[in-house]
Amino acid sequence: MSKLSYLSYMYNEEVTDPEIFDTLDIVYRNPKIISSKLIPCHTQFDGSFSENHATEWQKSHCSEGSHIREIRIHESASNIWVAPRRSLTSHHQAFANNTWVEVHRKTMSGAHGFHEGGNKMADGRIQPYGCWFHVMKGTGVFLNIGKTMVMDRKKLHRDSSSKEWCADSKCPDALANGYDSVQYISGWHGMHELVMCSGQCATEPLLSTCPPVELRTGLKADKQCTCMENLQILNCGDQRIPDDTSTDLCGADFSCGQ
Q: Is residue 255 part of a domain?
């Protein structure tokens, strides 16, 4: 697949400028939609953003017969493989109010007893934790950040009734001061994080892939995006996400065309 056809697939419109490909932060590692020659050979990471060299993961978790060892990578074989095209921890710039921003997110498990969105506290109050995203060019999925608060990095924000997991969210303060979202320029592992705080992201628990906010696609974020809950990462209803077979760590092709 060429750069132009890949870009056209990701942005749901005909793309005529191949140089846009070179500005992407990530590419999706699905052999059905992209040639391995277009996939960077450096550090890989999955939907949980655990950074490692893919070939080293294969050595650690696969036998000579290409069988997964006892320990699986994260929750299942259906991890979503994407490849970063540049460092995701540097050169971040804040976005202005009411900007459509290209983002990535993965389904949350709620395994720690809390949800994204709004959570009911012991005293009956709803604690607005927000809907969380990573800012990444290349996903083809955009949201509007409304009036946004910008922070250089995360700082813990606690009150006497807040749970520990609420401490990294600035949403209560943001909402009290009329903001819809918070940008952490250097958030988790130094990556640019975006938290939507207003609307249902403040009042309802969220454990799904698709957030309760309007999503758009297209190079100019001017096309409708319908997110499908059965896919593990934020999407516009397409099949950019490989099935379990193609994402099997031991069966995956990490040759990068070499």
A: no
